[in-house]
C-alpha cells in the first residue's frame, strides 16, 4: 500500500494536495508536509482548500501556508487529500484525475484509487509519516515541523485521542529531524486573535448550567458573533473550556449560521455524544461530535438538544 501510493504520487505530472473544509491543524499540517516533500523532490504541485477564507491563522508559520489557493488548477492528474473522511469534505468535483486518500478516520469511506487509511492512528500526520518512512523519503526540518504540528493539534497537544507509544515514537523521530516542540507550541497556542479572546469572554459570562451543573451550554447567536468580531473558525475548540469545569459531564455549543445552527457536543469521554449527533445525521466520536440543524432560532435548538441530553 505504501509503495503503491508513493509510486502514484511520484509518477504524477501535476499533483493537487487538498485539505478538508473548515480545516484544522491536522489537515493543514499534513498537506503542507507533503507539499514540502514534493517541492524538495522538484515535483509540480499545488495546494487547495475550498474554504480558504477560514484558514486558521495559527498555522501560518508553516512553510507553504501562503501557497494554499481557493481555486483549483484547470488540469491536474492526481489529487492527494489528507485527514478527510469523505470526498465531499473536499468540495471538489470528480474529474479526470486519480485520488490518493491519506487519513485516520474510522468513518473513512475509502473513496480514493489508493487509500492509505490507518484507523487507529491518532492523526493523519502519523499516517503520512509512516508513508514517507516506508518509502525512505528524507524528512526536512520544514516537513518535520508541519507533521509535528498536525499530530500535536489533533491530540490537543498530547491530551486526548488515540495517543499511544507509537505516537511518541513518531514525534521523537520528528524532533530529531528538526521539529522544535516549544517553538511550535508557542506559534499555535500563543497567537490567539483578539476576536477569539472576546468570544471566550462572552462565553464565560453567558454560559448556563443544568442538572446539578453536569451539563453546560453556550449559544453564539449572530449578535454575539458581530459584537466580538469573531468568525466561525474562532469557535473551534473553545467549548472544551466548559467541558473542563469540574462536575460538567457534557458541554453543548450552538452557533447560529445562515438559515441553520451548528451544534457541537463534548463529553467527559464516558457519555457518548455521538448518539445524539446520529439522530441528526451528524458524526463524531464518543467524546466529541457535531451536526447541523435546520433552524433559524438558536435558543429553540439549544432547548431541544438540552431536553435530549437531560433524558
Ligand atoms: Mn485528524
Sequence-ordered SSE layout with sheet pairings:
Elements: H1 2-11, E1 15-18, H2 25-40, E2 45-48, E3 68-69, E4 78-82, E5 98-103, E6 114-117, H3 124-134, H4 141-154, H5 165-176, H6 181-189, H7 194-206, E7 208-210, E8 215-220, H8 222-228, H9 240-243, E9 250-256, E10 261-267, H10 274-279, E11 283-284, E12 288-293, H11 298-310
Parallel strand pairs: 1-2, 1-4, 2-3, 4-5, 5-6, 8-9
Antiparallel strand pairs: 7-8, 9-10, 10-12, 11-12
The structure holds manganese (II) ion.
- Highest CATH level, the class of the largest domain: Alpha Beta
* Strands, count: 12
Order of helices and strands: HEHEEEEEHHHHHEEHHEEHEEH
Strand content: 15-25%
Helix content: 25-40%
Largest beta sheet, briefly?
6 strands, parallel
Bound molecules: manganese (II) ion
User: Which residues sit in consecutive blocks of at least 5 with pLDDT less than 50?
Assistant: none
Give the N-to-C terminal Cα separation.
46 Å
Protein structure class: alpha/beta
Note the total helix count. 11
CATH architectural designation of the largest domain: Alpha-Beta Complex
CATH H-level superfamily title of the largest domain: inorganic pyrophosphatase (n-terminal core)
Q: Give the radius of gyration.
A: 20 Å
* Annotated CATH topology of the largest domain: inorganic pyrophosphatase (n-terminal core)
Q: Label the overall shape.
A: globular
| Average pLDDT number | 94
Domain unit count:
2
Strand order of the largest sheet: 3-2-1-4-5-6
Amino acid at each position: 500500500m505504501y509503495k503503491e501510493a508513493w509510486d502514484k504520487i511520484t509518477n504524477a505530472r501535476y499533483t493537487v494536495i487538498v485539505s478538508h473544509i473548515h480545516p484544522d491543524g491536522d489537515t493543514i499540517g499534513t498537506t503542507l508536509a507533503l507539499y514540502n516533500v514534493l517541492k524538495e523532490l522538484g515535483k509540480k504541485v499545488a495546494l487547495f482548500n475550498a474554504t480558504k477564507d477560514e484558514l486558521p491563522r495559527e498555522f501560518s508559520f508553516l512553510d507553504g501556508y501562503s501557497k494554499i489557493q481557493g481555486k483549483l488548477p484547470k488540469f491536474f492528474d492526481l489529487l492527494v487529500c489528507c485527514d478527510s473522511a469523505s470526498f465531499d469534505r473536499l468540495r471538489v468535483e470528480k474529474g479526470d484525475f486519480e485520488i490518493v486518500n491519506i487519513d485516520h478516520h474510522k468513518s473513512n469511506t475509502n473513496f480514493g484509487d489508493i487509500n492509505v487509511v490507518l484507523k487507529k492512528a491518532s492523526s493523519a500526520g502519523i499516517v503520512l509519516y509512516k508513508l514517507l518512512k516506508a518509502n525512505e523519503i528524507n524528512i526536512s526540518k520544514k516537513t518535520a515541523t508541519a507533521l509535528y504540528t498536525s499530530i500535536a493539534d489533533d491530540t490537543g497537544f498530547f491530551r486526548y485521542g488515540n495517543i499511544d507509544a507509537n505516537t511518541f515514537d513518531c514525534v521523537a523521530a520528528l524532533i530529531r529531524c528538526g521539529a522544535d516542540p516549544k517553538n511550535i507550541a508557542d506559534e499555535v497556542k500563543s497567537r490567539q486573535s483578539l476576536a477569539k479572546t472576546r468570544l471566550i469572554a462572552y462565553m464565560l459570562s453567558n454560559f448556563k448550567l443544568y442538572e446539578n451543573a453536569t451539563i453546560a451550554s453556550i449559544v453564539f447567536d449572530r449578535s454575539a458573533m458581530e459584537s466580538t468580531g469573531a468568525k466561525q473558525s474562532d469557535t473551534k475548540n473553545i467549548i472544551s473550556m466548559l467541558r473542563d469545569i469540574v462536575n460538567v459531564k457534557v458541554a453543548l455549543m450552538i452557533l447560529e449560521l445562515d438559515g441553520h445552527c451548528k451544534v457541537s457536543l463534548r463529553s467527559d469521554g464516558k457519555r457518548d455524544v455521538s448518539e445524539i449527533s446520529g439522530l441528526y445525521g451528524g458524526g463524531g466520536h464518543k467524546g466529541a461530535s457535531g451536526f447541523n440543524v435546520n433552524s433559524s432560532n438558536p435558543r429553540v435548538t439549544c432547548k431541544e438538544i438540552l431536553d435530549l441530553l437531560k433524558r
